[in-house]
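Before relying on records like the one below, remember that each one covers exactly one chain. Contacts with other chains, cofactors or solvent are not represented anywhere in the record.
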Amino acid sequence: MSSTAQSLLQVMVVDDQGTMRSILRQLLANVGIDNVLEAENGEKALEILQGCTQKMGGQLPDVIISDLHMDGMDGMEFCNTLRRSKKLEIPVIILTGDSDRLLHETTLQVGAVAIMTKPVSAGDLLQKIEEVVGFSVN
C-alpha cells in the first residue's frame, strides 16, 4: 500500500481493553496508518458510526478491527448489528485469543470478513487490512 493510501485509510479499533486499543493503534502507526477511531465496545462503535453518517461529509472507517469477547455488545453481536444496516457496510476483522473453530465460523457467518488470532504482527495486520479493502501489498 502506498504511503498516501495508508495516510488516507481510516480504521476503527473496537476493544474493551484500553491497553489493547493502544497496542493496535501503535501497530497501525508502525505501518503508516494514523487515522484511527477507537471504541470500547460494539455499542460505542455503533454510536460513533451513526455520528459519522449524520455529519455532512462524515467519513466512515474503511475497515473495523474488533475484539470478539467484550463487555457490553461483543464482537459477534456488533458484526450482526452492523450487517443489518445498509448505511454501515464496513468490513470487520475480528481479533481474538479464542481458537475455537466453531466460534470462528459462526462469527464469519454473522458478518465478519476475517478472523485473526492474537497476537498479531503489524505486517500480518496490514496484509489483512489490504486484503479486505482491496489494496495490494507493495
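The mean pLDDT is 90.
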